[in-house]
Design a protein that fits this description.
The complex is a heterodimer of chains A (about 240) and B (about 575).
Chain A (H helix, E strand, L loop, with lengths): L1 H30 L3 H14 L1 E2 L1 H13 L3 H14 L3 H13 L11 H10 L4 H24 L5 H27 L1 E5 L3 E5 L8 E6 L3 E8 L2 E5 L5 E5 L3 E3 L1
Antiparallel strand pairs in A: 2-5, 2-8, 3-4, 5-6, 6-7
Helix pairs in contact in A: 1-2, 2-3, 3-4, 4-5, 6-8, 7-8
Chain B lengths: L1 H17 L3 E4 L4 E2 L3 E8 L4 E4 L6 E18 L2 E16 L3 E5 L3 E4 L2 E4 L3 E6 L3 H13 E7 L3 E3 L3 E10 L4 E8 L6 E6 L6 E5 L2 E15 L3 E5 L3 E9 L12 E9 L3 E6 L11 E11 L3 E3 L4 E11 L15 E3 L3 E5 L8 E11 L3 E5 L3 E6 L4 E6 L3 E6 L33 E2 L7 H28 L5 H14 L1 H8 L3 H20 L8 H10 L4 H19 L5 H23 L1
Parallel strand pairs in B: 2-10, 12-21, 22-29, 23-31
Antiparallel strand pairs in B: 1-3, 3-6, 4-8, 5-6, 7-10, 8-9, 11-13, 13-17, 14-19, 15-17, 16-17, 18-21, 19-20, 22-24, 24-27, 25-27, 26-27, 28-31, 29-30
Helix pairs in contact in B: 4-9, 5-6, 6-8, 6-9, 8-9
């Protein structure tokens, strides 16, 4: 197992030079407005096993220019999962204007909005590192105070409150980015059923490019929820998981 | 008595007679196509008449209400009667027995229903049929269309014509007009004068009833609905019962209708992006009244489209005027001939006001249309106009106003791609849940362990810990707070009292002794039972004695004595506190 990872790491480091060149070549192709070729070039970087927020963003742009809205949205969302960037958010907003469905989001309470923008400052990994750093620092201080005369209760209490915030942020970030599964509809139109059966009641119809949250899976059916709070069942084949 | 009964009977019978809604028809059985008069009458005034259901019979007119009132004065008796009649004119389209459901009327709040009525309709005799046939050959409507197969947006001319050979046509009026769904209709003026026309050697008098230019709005099979005409024909009265004025003729009403025509409309072949539905053949021309103008002076840009086709439906073209021009909505004027089938003109007049000086160009705009003759899309372009705008010299008085432009982006586009990136392996870049819990909760566990250790170890450790001494010291200081205050205030009298009181209260609180039981004996018993050193007990009692003595026999150096006693009291309390642990 260890050997395998080592080999992969070596391979990746060798290929990283080549892939950088590929990335630049794809950028040039994009500049020449040959979007389909640019997509193939960018995709070939992904098949090597490399990714980055910028790569997904560029792919999103290619699909946008080629007017594949669903694909563009998928790649922008993927880019945002790796790294938050204002350019990506703005492009995603534009792409969302092009699709058929306009899902009205349920307005969130102001503190929930603040909290969600706060936790998206760092990605989940960074939050985990921050929490661990703080708890170990607190432990060190505690041990230090035990054996020496160093006592700074004020600093320690700040550290504890920071610890509390960071552990909640880590949990929320984990819930938002890892546990929560999202997908984009790729078929032109899909009927949302009330039950995981073909002949059940049709609740509403979704069109390509709409973002859904996957709540549950039942064989080939998935239980979905959209931003306005409605939920139902669709076939898994109609969407692409982020 | 008999008389009264008779009167009563008559009264009742008239009453019951008055409340009957009777139904009658002028002919029963009737002949197919004949006009039938059905009347509902009641001998009083009523309201809220509910129409019956004439199953399968065509209602020509009705209900036509009429009220008759009569007042008669016969042999000194006056009689007042009112009669309300509702009449219908019906026509049967086929033979059979038709049942007309009961009608209802409200009289004095009571609803009165008529009987259901059975109407028999029989076929007309052979002679009658022959007459009908002869009529249909001599009186008919024909629909003429210029084309049967068109594309969406193409125009056809449709005219409804009345052909007649009979010379006794009294009058005619359309009873139902065609709906023409799926078409944009433009009615043309047509003269209803009869003209002679010969078809297959047979002369007819022809009148154009309706002439329209239809523009197909959607693809598929569209139906040009039939038009129905109500014709009144004068016929000789065969019957003996001639009119009072010796009228030999009677008016016979006939309904004739044209046949429906299906027009096949095909979709336009893959329209180019800037095609907006113009079909026909057009020319486009643009003019500018001034190529040089001053800022804030108006310029007129005139766009003229001429040609044949659905010119009326052409929308103003999208013209990219310079950003610094104020553009008003175009004034649209047109002269359309025959709904666009003849060469027509449509002009769009734009009023432009250039706000800043400079050289501008109004780019050429293009009209894309589908030529239905060549079956191809064609594009006609307007020339490009170069305009030179000079500074306006008359704006000196406006100089005080700062005329700035706010930069704004009208059309949004996505941001440009990233040119550099740092590629990483595709994997979930997070610590797994278990690893995170291990790394995170290990220090928490350690901290908790440390805390528990501190509390447990701290309790067992007694003598050496100066922390405990500190606590005892604190208690002593608290107890002797008032005594300390007395020293500060040089209050000698109450000092000894305070010390004594503080010691007793401390003792009482510590060993839970009630105030009533306080005595030197209880002190020794409690000190003994709590295994406190006998020296401490002696000191305690000695201090109490000393305080008592000092209160009544004042010493010379009070200040020194007070400090000494306070220290002693403090010492004893600390001693007791430490001994009790």
């Amino acid at each position: 197992m260890k050997l395998k990872t080592l080999i992969i790491t070596i391979l990746v480091s060798i290929s990283s030079f080549a892939s950088d060149q590929l990335f630049e070549k794809a950028n040039r192709t994009y500049n020449n407005s040959d979007y389909t070729s640019a997509i193939t070039l960018y995709d070939s970087i992904l098949t090597i096993g490399l990714e980055s927020s910028e790569l997904y963003y560029n792919l999103g742009n290619c699909h946008y220019k080629a007017q594949n809205w669903a694909n563009a949205i998928w790649h922008y969302e993927k880019s945002l999962k790796l790294e938050r960037n204002d350019k990506t958010i703005q492009n995603l907003e534009l792409a969302n204007l092009k699709i058929i469905d306009r899902i009205e989001e349920i307005p969130q309470l102001f503190y929930k909005k603040w909290w969600s923008s706060f936790i998206s400052i760092f990605n989940t990994f960074s939050w985990q590192l921050i929490s661990i750093l703080i708890i170990w620092l607190a432990l060190t201080l505690k041990i230090l105070s035990q054996f020496t005369n160093y006592k700074n209760k004020y600093f320690l209490s700040i550290l504890y409150s920071l610890l509390l915030i960071s552990i909640f942020a880590t949990y929320s970030s984990y819930q938002k980015n890892i546990t929560k599964k999202e997908a984009i509809i790729f078929t032109t139109s899909i009927v949302v059923n009330s039950e995981p059966k073909t002949n059940s009641t049709n609740l509403f119809t979704l069109h390509s490019g709409s973002k859904i949250e996957i709540l549950d899976t039942n064989e080939e059916w998935i239980n979905i929820k959209i931003a306005n709070g409605s939920s139902g069942w669709i076939k898994e084949s109609g969407c692409k998981v982020l | 008595m008999k008389k009264i009964i008779l009167i009563l009977f008559v009264f009742i019978s008239t009453l019951s007679f008055a409340q009957k809604l009777s139904v009658s028809a002028d002919k029963n059985p009737a002949i197919v196509g004949e006009q039938i008069l059905i009347q509902y009458s009641i001998d009083t005034q009523g309201n809220n008449f509910k129409s019956p259901n004439f199953n399968g019979l065509r209602v020509l007119s009705g209900p036509n209400p009429s009220t008759q009132s009569s007042y008669s004065f016969v042999n000194g008796k006056s009689q007042n009667s009112t009669k309300t009649t509702y009449s219908y004119y019906l026509q049967a389209t086929k033979e059979g027995t038709f049942s007309i459901s009961p009608a209802a009327i409200t009289v004095n709040g009571k609803t009165i229903k008529s009987k259901a009525y059975q109407l028999k309709v029989v076929k007309g005799s052979e002679r009658n049929k022959a007459e009908q046939k002869a009529l249909s050959e001599n009186l008919f409507i024909k629909v003429e269309t210029s084309k049967r197969n068109i594309v969406v947006g193409e125009q056809i001319l449709v005219s409804y014509k009345l052909f007649t050979r009979i010379n006794n046509l009294h009058s005619y009026e359309p009873s139902s007009l065609p709906a023409l769904n799926g078409f944009w209709t433009k009615d043309l003026e047509s003269s209803s004068r009869f003209k002679r026309d010969v078809i297959d050697g047979v002369p007819y008098y022809v009148s154009t009833l309706k002439k329209s230019v239809l523009t197909a709005q959607k693809s598929g099979k569209l139906i040009i609905d039939p038009m129905e005409l109500k014709c009144s024909i004068r016929v000789k009265n065969n019957k003996r019962n001639r009119g009072f004025f010796g009228n030999n003729y009677q008016i016979q009403e006939e309904y004739i209708s044209s046949k429906a025509i299906t027009i096949t409309v095909t979709e336009l072949p893959s329209p180019p992006p800037n095609f907006h539905g113009a079909v026909g053949k057009f020319l486009i021309k643009s003019e500018v009244d001034n190529t040089t103008a001053n800022a804030n002076d108006a310029i007129t840009y005139k766009l003229t489209i001429t040609g044949t086709g659905n010119i009326e439906l052409i929308e103003p073209l999208a013209i990219q005027f310079p950003e610094d021009f104020e553009v008003y909505d175009p004034k649209i004027s047109d002269r359309i001939f025959e709904g666009g089938r003849k060469r027509s003109i449509k002009t769009f007049e734009y009023l432009l006001i250039p706000r800043y000086e400079g050289e501008y160009t109004i780019p050429s705009s293009s009209l894309v249309y589908y030529n239905n003759k060549t079956k191809k899309y064609e594009t006609k372009k307007t020339p490009q106009h170069n305009l030179i705008i000079n500074t306006n010299n008359n704006t000196e008085d406006e100089n005080s106003i700062i005329n700035q432009q706010i930069i704004k982006t009208e059309k949004k586009d996505i941001h440009y791609i990233f040119t550099t990136t740092q590629l990483k392996e595709i994997r979930d870049n997070i610590l797994s849940k278990n690893l995170f819990i291990l790394i995170f909760f290990l220090p928490i566990f350690l901290i908790i362990l440390l805390w528990i250790h501190n509390t447990i170890v701290g309790k067992t450790d007694t003598n050496s810990s100066d922390w405990k001494n500190k606590k005892a010291n604190k208690i002593a200081l608290k107890r002797l707070k008032y005594a300390q205050n007395c020293i500060n205030n040089n209050d000698f009298d109450s000092f000894f009292e305070e010390i004594e009181k503080s010691l007793w209260v401390y003792f009482a609180d510590k060993f839970k002794v009630s105030i009533a039981d306080l005595s030197k004996e209880t002190v020794s018993t409690h000190f003994y039972s709590n295994a406190i050193d006998i020296n401490t007990e002696k000191q305690f009692i000695a201090l109490l004695d000393e305080c008592e003595f000092a209160r009544y026999a004042p010493a010379s150096n009070k200040n020194a004595q007070m400090g000494d006693i306070l220290n002693k009291a403090k010492h004893i309390i600390i001693e007791v506190e430490t001994a009790l642990r």
